[in-house]
Amino acid sequence: MASGAAALGLLFTGLSPPAHADVTTNIASACAGLTEFTFPATTIASASTVPNGTLSHRGKPIAQHCLVTGRMNERVSAVDGEEYAISFEMRLPTDWSGQYLYQGNGGLNGFVTTALGTAGGSESALQMGMAVISSDSGHTSSQNPTFGLDPQARLDYGYQATGTLTPMAKALIDTAYGSEPEFSYMAGSSNGGRHTMVAASRYADDYDGFLAVAPSFHRPQAAIAQLWGAQQWNTVTTNKNLDSAFTSEERVLVAEAILEQCDALDGLADGMVFASANCQEMFNVAHHVPMCASDRDGTCLTSEQQRVITDVFDGATTSDGSAIYSSFPYDPGLVSESWASWQFKAPVTRDSVVLGYIYSSPPYAPAMSSLGQFVLTLDIDEANESIYATSERYAQSAVGFMVPPDLTYQDLKASGGKMMVLHGASDGVFSMEDTSSWYRNLQAAHGGNAADFVRYYEIPGMAHTRGGPATDQHDSLTALINWVEKNEQPEALNAWVNPANKALPADWSTNRTRPLCAYPEIAFYTAGDPERAASFKCRVSERSEILNARVAATDGQPGSAALTLTILFLVIPGISTVAYMWKRRKHS
Fold first, then answer.
1. What's the chain's Rg over C-alpha atoms?
2. Exposure of 281 in the CB half-sphere (CA atoms within 13 A)
3. pTM for this predicted structure
């Protein structure tokens, strides 16, 4: 039986746990024999039984299961002389549900993350009785980031490791249990969310359901935006550290100004901005945050800071003003350390090398000892061109091997598959506005009926994949399974706080729950206990209706400036608001 917030989630959404006849096998005694499993280009390294309680998730023990480890496609690169392979682990429950899940992992990969089968704050697929596979995507951690010099390693990291492992995983399940999985799923967050969205485009026939949290589906473009952002922050630093450009005290100042303008737009001042699209209309840094009359002291921003913050949130551009990636939503979750880390540290420690070795063609290959200089002196126009470039050695561009080839998901729809996507408003590296823009275009491409096979949910306050002042735990995997297997469409997900989350405000209840409404609906407070999800109802905000109408009128394509302005003038009062949205239009 589900307990606590998870049980409330099942009641709130009207879902019940997926019903499967558990397949209790003799896998506990047969586990060691799986070292004899054979599949082309595959070597099994070990197979052993993991006792009950060795692993846990959300404080609950994970039952006994069989752990199989191995490698596929072992080779020596003709480019850099390195030994490469796709290493994996697969965990096979003693009491198998008949389901299989491919776990997409985050970051640069390079190591085999424990195959729990989670995505952001979701449930554990392994805990639910599903067989789960996890991999390093074709390289080791010691090969990060220089594996990008090898063309095949780039492709494995981008998408091919998924295509290679999937048939092997299903064959291993067949060997272990005597039948292939009845239903197959894929889930992941961050780069794992990107893997999931790519697989939904490239391998739709191999899986029944996909769950992507904070997906980096435009990862190369986001990397350029990160480096551009670092250059902007650097113009207002007070020392050698980028975080001096926008200190924690100043971020609290801005967050409070956002809350003052936007907190009650959803009917309740509770420290959460559900009406995010409306908030972008209401809030303006220059108008709502005090300007310093003298020195910076945490109670004001200089005019230069106001300009830089506005530019960064409006989104990176090339020298001619063309958008590189996306705008970002103003959200009070920018107070989180996660947001600051992605904005001020990651450009030097992460984005510099993913662009320098993996996304650029030919690779910049910057010296590891001078990454800061590389970031701050990089020609952004040239870097932006490099992610679309190919060469004789690198036949696919970074955009080609990292981005889903069809973001309208025609094959997914044709296959009958389902996908759920979740994104946090205060993600400091991958913009929720990019994801909402994609979903509006998806709706337009399918005549407004994309919700029949793809659902999208926004999480106010949530940082990258989890954390921040947010209800960042959710019953999304259960909802996906019930959608796929019972045709129970997931309207609203129940979400709750993680009491161990250090970013939770002191005045929040550690039992706070909220509904995550299927986009474009948002949660509006109606009546009752403000800490309970049942006190909220989902409905479409005025701003969401405008955005959907605009995209539908342009067939999901950017442009049609005259129509955009006409809609804005008719519906949104105030010339200043129209001017502000015109500035942000190119990112929507």
1. 24
2. 19
3. 0.90
